[in-house]
What we know:
With 341 residues, the chain is an alpha/beta fold. It has 14 helices and 12 strands.
Amino acid sequence: MLESSVYKCKKTPRTRARRWLCFLILFLMMGTFMLTFYNSSPKVSWPLKFWTISPAVPSAYSVAYPHRYGFKLDEPYRCWQESPFLVLVIPVAPNNREARDTIRNTWGKETTVLGQVVSRYFLLGLSKEEEGTETLKEQVLQESQRHHDILQSDFLDSYNNLTIKTMVMFEWLSSHCPNTSYAMKVDSDIFLNVHNLVDVLLKAPRQLYMTGMVVKGALVHRDHNSKWFMPVSAFPEFSYPPYALGLGYVFSLDLPKKILEASAHVKTVYIEDVYVGLCMRHLGITLTEPPRGDLFRSLRPYGTSNCYWTSVITTILQDSNQLSEVWRAYQTVNTSACALQ
Ligand SMILES: *[C@@H]1O[C@H](CO)[C@@H](O)[C@H](O)[C@H]1NC(C)=O
Ligand SMILES: *[C@@H]1O[C@H](CO)[C@@H](O)[C@H](O)[C@H]1NC(C)=O
Ligand SMILES: *[C@@H]1O[C@H](CO)[C@@H](O)[C@H](O)[C@H]1NC(C)=O
């Protein structure tokens, strides 16, 4: 918009009045532009904003990473010993036992798929409740001893700390899974078709590979009421670089180390999938589109039959009950009949 008016200014006859008018319009446009810009930074009154805009980093939007986080619960040798082809990492809150159990009984129980070893790990932070009562801590410990699939790191588990969780996941994978080809970060409210996923991965590049629902040119939310609000001080650009939606993205195991190296140079933002996209841009690695556009999905289209579950890799569900239901439907459907449709 600004460029075209400058262009017009040059073209008009060089009378003083017109020139003035042109400058005035330009000035007003820039003024409006800057006002909207500054208005997006949080809860600071206007004159102050002018001064605090660049140096102040609101900690809630730019979380503490890199930082040395340790593990309260770990499986130090399992990945190394099992050498799985694919590792599924599921971030989940400590108190969400129901989600973990449902996944263990549905897609998380598939340990050999198309002849490849697949293993799952739940990634937890610390719970606020844990400080008050010992019960949850004790329950999670018992669960870990029983299933050997819990990794618990020592930061507070909250929405704003999800970037920390993701980076801790990359740290864990790069140091614990030397003989693994791929990993996937997948949310706990997702239907995952592990068979279709492994099928895609068997034909995929082994290096510099990341895929999922790739978003391009997503605008940065500057509205304070948005769940994804991002102040200019934390991220000044208008749109995000391409990134794979956090509901489920897959990557080759050479990437965790590279992303960790990049993170030392890329300022953290609290939206975890965006941050991974920023690190990928820093590395100059392009995200790969899935072989079919309808494999990684967010929502199930209305009116589709149960054959739908045999054709996708991901779909967001409402809750654990729905996952159990969908899993039953998926188990009973005739896959070869669906393929003929
Ligand atoms: C995590 O999030 C909470 C609140 O969202 C915050 O108070 C805490 O300092 C954050 N960081 C770590 C490392 O726990
Ligand atoms: C790595 O895994 C492959 C197949 O999963 C196996 O054949 C190979 O022996 C493993 N190598 C090591 C060093 O564990
Ligand atoms: C599944 O569908 C195929 C193709 O329509 C059919 O030949 C087969 O008998 C079906 N299997 C079962 C168990 O219904």
